[in-house]
Amino acid sequence: xxxxxxxxLRTEFTGKNGTVAAVxxxxxxxxxxxxxxxxxxxxxGKSVTALSLLRLLPASARIAGGSIRLDGRDLLALGERxxxxxxxxxxxxxxxxxxxxLNPIMPVGRQIAELLECKLHLSRRRARLRVIELLEMVGIPxxxxxxDAFAHQLSGGMRQRIVIxxxxxxxxxxxxxxxxxxxxxxxxxxxxxxxxxxLASDLGTALILITHDLGVVAGMTQRIHVMYGGRIVExxxxxxxxxxxxMPYTWGLLRSLPRLDHPRADRLTxxxxxxxxxxxxxxxxxxxxxxxxxxxxxxxxxxxxVSAPRHTIAEDGHEVRCWATQPDGWLAxxxxxxxxx
Length: 341
Ligand SMILES: Nc1ncnc2c1ncn2[C@@H]1O[C@H](COP(=O)(O)OP(=O)(O)OP(=O)(O)O)[C@@H](O)[C@H]1O
Description:
Bound molecules: adenosine-5'-triphosphate
GO cellular component, one term: plasma membrane
Shape: globular
Keywords: ATP-binding, Cell membrane, Membrane, Nucleotide-binding, Transport
Subcellular location: Cell membrane
CATH topology of the domain at 2-221: Rossmann fold
Largest sheet: 8 strands, mixed
Family: Belongs to the ABC transporter superfamily.
Oligomer: single chain
GO molecular function, one term: ATP binding
């Protein structure tokens, strides 16, 4: 049994202009200790998917369908007290801006200690000692001093290390990291990502890494799911996705990545057009208006997420939502468009 099983999840926002499904029919699993990347442009539904998992949605949103199972337990059926027990203790979240997770008027160490006292029932003294160990583990220099620092006295990278220590403090089974390094300098980003990867893998913690940047998940995850317009449009192992991407949207994401073999910045090609307006309820493939390979059927009806044809891929389990690259599609054999600006 997978650690996390998300099935046909649908999360809707209701506002003045009616109801839109920000997450629409999303299904995926995460195994124990596995790292999964959830990738796509801004607004494609990555964060809403993550917030749905822990039922941390804003008041204007609701989970309208599907199921979320953690270790076999249906998280959507739990009461508020029970889901609160799961947060932090079994599933922890790391957000983009560490300041959203840290209390500015409480020493950082005390914030982690409170979690340990409340969730693991450690005494105040034992919690403080454990916090110092955790700060050491995430590479905070002089942890016995820094334990009493306030968030504003630390750099952005140090704050994110504190947030990682907080996420790991109760030894959760799963960490969801939503753009954990976007707010940091590039050099610090790499340090924080490798720290997160090393700690999660040492401790056997599963990880869902959410990012708009395929480059970030390349070295961090075993599998990648690409999202577009509230849907998953491609699923594959990380190696397979980079070797044999099948969906034109994924090709676009890959073309917009800097590459060492194409050092000139002008070789980067952003994807033309804007993400879809989820309110317009178009019948076809959601990427159709921006796709350079579209044909009539693409605007008329939406393809399902199906296994890619075996002769064009190296691995089973590779799924794609695209008329063009399905077995009898007009790009059924095209595999080289990827990353070839
Ligand atoms: N507070 C909100 N009110 C109304 N609609 C929202 C709200 N938050 C998100 N949405 C809708 O959900 C969609 C998905 O948003 P989400 O934040 O999950 O995207 P994302 O892929 O995580 O992008 P980003 O990286 O910018 O956070 C948005 O395009 C928008 O339509």
